[in-house]
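ok new one. same drill as before - structure tokens go in, u give me an amino acid for every spot. 250 of them this time. try not to just spam alanines like last time pls lmao
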């Protein structure tokens, strides 16, 4: 049995993770920690993998603390910066256990991971690409980590294909054109009634390709969370891994 602790267990995602763990045949919940609790009870003696779903302001400290205690992690909190990822890599180099692992996912929904993969594949064949992400109004970051990851994948694919900047089509100020990430405009919608949705629009003269992923319920993220826990627990991916696509046969 894989012993799993959940940090942020009282949150929306944390509650779903606890339920998924209780229903999994090969896992057991070792500890459930919410935002008011400390991490003192989580150690490598009672936990094989900690799942961390909190807020960007707390996540880095949580990860560094648990890495220092020899605990492997699966992290679903978004809002990570390059500087934060570098700190995690440095912590893993000094970790008390050999081959420790931290996995960070911009998104755990298989549909979103595949949409991201398909968008990167298609990007080199289109003149223009834009990303629209739509979420519930309680989401703490905008744009979403998934949308940032998608834009970065599109930008990388375009650079590798030798494509130049995309035509912007605006005159003068362009304040309403969204955040530009790796040359890709990313638009964030926050609307009551939504859960988690992303659409990638790719265009050439006379044609358009739309790639869309919709998660209507948090249960859609649980297969990805459990896949990540099993993979990290197996020890097959030491160090820092970012993106669920690394665990899929793509």
């Amino acid at each position: 049995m894989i012993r799993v602790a959940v940090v942020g267990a009282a949150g929306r995602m944390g509650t779903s993770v606890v339920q998924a763990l209780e229903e999994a045949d090969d896992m057991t919940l070792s500890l459930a920690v919410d935002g008011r609790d400390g991490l003192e009870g989580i150690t490598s003696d009672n936990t094989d993998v900690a799942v961390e779903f909190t807020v960007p302001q707390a996540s880095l400290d949580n990860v560094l603390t648990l890495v220092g205690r020899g605990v492997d992690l699966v992290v679903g909190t978004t809002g990570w910066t390059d500087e934060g990822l570098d700190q995690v890599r440095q912590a893993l180099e000094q970790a008390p256990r050999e081959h420790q692992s931290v996995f960070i996912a911009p998104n755990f929904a298989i549909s979103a991971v595949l949409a991201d993969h398909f968008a990167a594949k298609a990007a080199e064949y289109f003149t223009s690409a834009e990303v629209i992400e739509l979420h519930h109004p309680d989401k703490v970051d905008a744009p979403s980590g998934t949308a940032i990851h998608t834009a970065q994948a599109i930008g990388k694919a375009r650079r590798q294909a030798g494509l130049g900047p995309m035509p912007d089509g605006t005159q003068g100020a362009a304040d309403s054109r969204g955040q530009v990430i790796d040359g890709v405009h990313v638009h964030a919608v926050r609307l009551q009634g939504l859960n988690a949705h992303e659409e990638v629009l790719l265009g050439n003269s006379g044609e358009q390709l739309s790639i869309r992923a919709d998660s209507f319920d948090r249960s859609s993220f649980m297969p990805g969370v459990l896949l990540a826990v099993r993979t990290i627990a197996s020890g097959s991916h030491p160090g820092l891994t970012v993106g669920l696509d690394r665990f899929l046969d793509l």
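The CA atoms of residues 29 and 213 lie 30 Å apart. and btw The longest strand covers residues 196-204.
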